[in-house]
Amino acid sequence: MSNEERTGRSVLVTGGNRGIGLAIARAFEANGDKVAITYRSGDVPEGLLGVKADVTDAASIDAAFTEAEAAHGPVEVLVANAGITRDTLLLRMSEDDFTDVVDTNLSGAFRVIKRASKGMIRLRKGRVVLISSVVGLYGSPGQINYAASKSGLVGIARSLTRELGSRGITANVVAPGFINTDMTAELPEETQKSYLASIPAGRFAEPEEVANVVRWVASDEAAYISGAVIPVDGGLGMGH
Fold first, then answer.
1. What are phi and psi of 136, to 5 degrees?
2. Partners of 170 in the β-ladder
3. Residues 74, 118: contact at Cβ < 8 Å?
4. Annotation marks residue 39 as catalytic
């Protein structure tokens, strides 16, 4: 395989205009890949192809992929990162609080994978990376909706591996712990302190530390890894 094939791949990152998604997009860009990001609102960071998409709407996803493919060719690396939270305790959690989170985080991943897989099957190669969370398998009070959606990604990745593994396509889950992003910065100071106390590494991660793992698991070096859950959590989850 020439160097040309290993870099310069067509990469699509959902929810790639901020936080972990943006760090992931930048990591692939630095690798010499052609990167498109989907976003719902806000600005498109410089140097990236931004395609507007709502992962709860299949038609909008199709349009976004079509735009990315016209510019960069069929998507070879898909990173399903788009996600929302609606944290609240079970007894206060509304039907909408639950279904909205699951529809974005879990069904949204299903929709983008379904659209990407057509091209990957034709190419007989592909990398699917699903961004989960330590909370998916560890659990967290007030996050029944979020944890359910994030643990569901493991079932998707493992079933996808069994379906498409023979076609040069891998599907893996990267499960970040607590990362220094806008989302974490909004947590009350006391909450942040209690989280830090439970992390063996004694610190939150930088978004780049997650992005580098995503880039690696999408590389040729990781061709024989599929259906794996890779924690990037400073030891918080410990096999959960």
1. -55, -40
2. 127
3. no
4. no
Token pair for 185: 């910065």
Task: Give all strands (DSSP E) within the chain, no chain letters.
Answer: 10-13, 34-39, 49-52, 77-80, 126-131, 169-176, 229-232
pLDDT tens figures, 148-186: 999 999 999 999 999 999 999 999 999 999 999 877 788
Token duo for residue 206: 């930088």
Catalytic one of 39, 138, 146, 224: 146
pLDDT in tens, 186-203: 888 888 898 899 999 999
Q: How far apart are alpha carbons 83 and 81 in whole angstroms?
A: 6
Q: Nearest 5°: phi and psi at 165?
A: -60, -30
Using DSSP, state whether 47 is helix, strand or coil: coil
For the chain, what is the radius of gyration of the CA atoms? 17
Task: Map tokens 């302190």 to a residue.
Answer: 193
Kindly give the interhelix angle for 95-102 and 144-164, rounded to the nearest 10 degrees.
30
> What is the rounded distance in angstroms from the CA atom of residue 147 to the CA atom of residue 143?
6
How far CA 28 is from CA of 10, 51, 158, 186, 211, in Å, comes to 10, 17, 24, 28, 8
**How many angstroms separate the CA atoms of 73 and 30, rounded?**
19
Written as one letter, the residue type at 86 is R
Which whole-number Å values give the CA distances from 153 to 54, 146, 174, in the listed order? 18, 11, 10
> For 45-64, what is each residue's pLDDT tens digit?
999 999 999 999 999 999 99
Domains along the sequence of the chain with CATH: 3-229 (3.40.50.720)
